[in-house]
Amino acid sequence: MDSDADIVIQARGLAKHYRIGRAPRHDTLRDAVADRARRLWRSLTPARGSDASSGSEDFWALQDVSFSIRRGEVVGIVGRNGAGKSTLLKVLARITEPTRGSVSIRGRVASLLEVGTGFHPELTGRENIYLNGAVLGMPRAEIRRKFDEIVAFSEVERFLDTPVKRYSSGMYVRLAFSVAAHLEPNILIVDEVLAVGDLQFQQKCLGKMREATLNQGRTVLIVSHQMESILRLCDSALLLSGGRVEFAGSPMEAVARYTQVGGRSPRAVDCRTLERPAWAGGRVTIRSLEHLDTASPAWSVPFGGSLDFVCELAGTNPETPCEVFHAWFSPAGLEVAAVQSPAFSFASGRAGVRVRSHLQNIRLTPGAYTLNVGVRAGGRMEDFIETVVRIDVLPTAESITRHAEAYRAFYVPEADFRVE
Amino acid sequence: MAAPVEDLLIEAGRADRHYVRDLWRYRELLGFLAWRDIKVRYKQTAMGVLWVIIQPTVQTILLTFVFSKLARMPSGSLPYVAVVLAGQIAWMLFSSAFIGAGNSLTSNTHLVGKVYFPRLILPLSALGVALVDCLVLLALTLPFAPLAGIGPTWRWAFLPLFMAAALAPAIGAGLWIGALTVKYRDFRFITPFLLQIGMFVTPVGFSTQFLPSWRELLALNPLTGVVEGFRWCLLGEQQELFLPSLVSSGVISAILIVSGLWYFRRTERQFADIL
Asked: Which residues of A touch B112 (CB under 8 A)?
C-alpha cells in the first residue's frame, strides 16, 4: 500500500440535491406558464411569509460524501433504500451531475447499473452483443475479438441468430451478463445486478470479475442488498445512511453496523422495554442480559474462548419448568449457532430467577454476530427477543494461523495436521 | 493489459472539458444506434420498405391533384408528378430526420438513465434512419426517371450536398425540440404541428420558378432552398437555383444548429434527473 499514487477514486464533499413533492417541476408547458404567472402575481402582491420555501421540498440524496478508493480494491456499498447508494453510483458513472463537490477518477470507467442496457428485443443475440458492448463502452474491435468467448460464456450458442424477444429470461440474463463480464475497464461500477440470474451462473460471473481484480488490478464498486456477497467479495465497504457516509472500512464492520442499528452493545442490557413478537406468551419474561467478563470490552469473546452471561427472568406463573435458548446470527442473517438450556423451575415463592450461561470453546470465525434469546415453558414460547446484543468474536493467534477469516466459513474445527 | 490511465474530474456545475474527446470516443456507439434503428425498422415488418414509400406516394398523388388539376400550376415540360416527387423526397428527408432527432431522447430514456455517453449521440444517430429511408426512396424512384424523360446528369453528383442541407436544419431544430421535450413533454405535440405548417410554406407541391412575385418571401423558409436544390439535381436542365433561398437556408440552418447545440449542452447534464 503506497500513498496517494494508488488512489483511483477520490470523492470530496459530494452532494446531490433533488426537488420532490410539490416542487415546481414544470412537466408541461402549461405548468411552467402558470407558475410564472403565479410568481409574477406574488411579486406584485404584498408578501405573506417566505415564498422561496413554499411549494418546493428539498431532498438531499447525498450530503458531504467523501472517500477514497485504491486500485484493485473491491468496495461494497451498503445502506437502506433511499440511503443514496444508487445516486452515488450514478454520480460516479457520470449519468447525473453532483450538486456540490467533486470526484476525481483515474482510469476508464464502465458502469453496469442494469443487466442488458440497450438490448433490443427485435435484434438477435449476435446483434445485441455488439449493441450492448457499444453501449457499455467497448470498442467494436474488442467486441469482435472477444465475441466467441462471450458466446461460449453465455451458453446460448444455439440461439445466437434468434431475436432476443424469443429468449427465456434466463437466457436473456446470461447473454447480458456475459457481455458485461468481458468488459475490461480499470474501474467497474455494479449495481445490484448480482441478484438476477441463476446461482451457478452468478458464481461464474463473480469468479470472472474477481479474477480481473486480482490479475489486472481492476477496481470494483458494488451495491448490493445481499450481505453475503458483500462479505464474500469485498475488501472494504462504505455504509451510507441518509445520504451520508456512516462508516467506511472493513466489510464485516460495515455489514454488522448495517444489520444491527446502534453498534456495540452495553455490558448490561435492560430488556424490559424491547420489542416482542405478538405471539410470545408473556408468562415468563426476560428482564435483562448481562455480560459477566468485566475485563473484555462489552460482549466480545476471543476466538476459541468462552462467554459468560446472565439472563434474568421474571414470571407470574413460575410453576412450569422453563428453558432458555439463544441463537447466533451472522451479519447476513444466517443462523449459525444455537443452544438451549435444560428445563429448570423457579425457586418456590420467588418471582424471578437468574440463569447463568457458560458457553465454551466458541470457534466461530472472528466477526460480528447478533444474538436472539427466548424462553419456552411447557412447550410454549413465552418470550422472544430478536437481536438483543451484538457479540464480537475477536481474532486470536490461532484463528489467524488457521486463516479463519479468509475462508469466510462460520465454524473452524479444532484441527491437527501432521505430515506422515 | 496496459490501458492508458486517464484522469477525469467530475465537478458540480462544470462543463465537461472532454466532451469533444468523448464524442469521438463514442462514435462507434453513434453508428451502432443508427444501425439498430435502421435494422429494427426494416426488419420488424415484412412490409418495412413498403411503409417507406406508401406515405410519400399517397402525398405525391394528392399534391399533384391539388396543385396541378385544381390550382392549375404549371410545371414546364416535365410531368407534374416529377416536380412533386422530387420535392417530396427532400421534405421527407427533413421531416423524418427532424421527428427522429426530436424524439431521440424520450425514446431512449432507458439508456440515458443507465449509462454515460455524450447525449448528442442520440439526435445524431436518429439522422441515420432518415437518410436510409431517403436513399431507399431514391433507389425506388430513380429507375422510373427515364419514363418522365429525365436522364442521369452530372447534377446528380450534387445530391449529397443537398441531402446534408436537408439534415442541417433538421438536426438544429431537433436539438431544440429534443432538449425541450425532456423538460416539457408538450413539445411532442408541437412537432407534428410545426411540420404541418412547414409543409404548407415549403414549395413541396409546386415550383417557385413559376411564382416570381412570391419567390423572395418563400426564400425565408430554409427548406425552400433544399427542395429547390433537390429539383435542380434530379430534374435536369429546366430547374434553376435561386441564390437567396440557398443563402437563407444556409444562414438559418447555421443559426439553428449553433443555438440548438448551446441549449442542448446547457440542459444535457440534467437529462438523467428529469427523464
From this structure: 95
Query: Which residues on A lie below 8 Å from B33 (Cβ)?
Result: 134
Question: What is the rounded (10 degree) CA torsion for B107, B108, B114, B118?
Answer: -130
Residues counted in chain B:
275
What pTM was computed for the model? 0.73
Q: How far is A42 from chain B (nearest CA, A)?
A: 24
> Domain locations in chain A?
61-259, 268-407
Output DSSP code: residue B69.
I
Cα separation, B60 vs B66, in Å, equals 10
Please, what sign has the CA dihedral across residues B38, B39, B45, B46? positive
Is A137 in Cβ contact with B117 (below 8 Å)? yes
Task: Print the domain residue range for B160.
Answer: 19-274
C-alpha cell at B257: 444548429
Give the span between the Cα atoms of B124 and A297, in whole angstroms.
Answer: 64
Q: A96 — contact with chain B (CB < 8 Å)?
A: yes
What are the angstrom distances between the C-alpha of A311 and each of A348, A364, A381, A397?
A: 19, 22, 16, 31
Q: How far apart (Å, rounded) are the C-alpha atoms in residues B123 and B257?
A: 12
pLDDT (tens digit per residue) in A57-110: 678 889 999 999 998 888 999 887 778 888 999 999 988 889 999 999 998 888
Q: Do A18 and B273 touch (CB under 8 A)?
A: yes
What secondary structure, in 3-state letters, does A289-351 show? EEECCCCCCCCEEECCCCEEEEEEEEECCCCCCEEEEEEEECCCCCEEEEEECCCECCCCCCC
A95 part of contact set with chain B, CB < 8 Å? yes
CATH topology of domain A61-259: Rossmann fold (3.40.50)
Residue B13 CB coordination number (10 Å): 9
Q: Write down the ipTM of this complex.
A: 0.85
Fold of A268-407: Coagulation Factor XIII; Chain A, domain 1 (2.70.50)
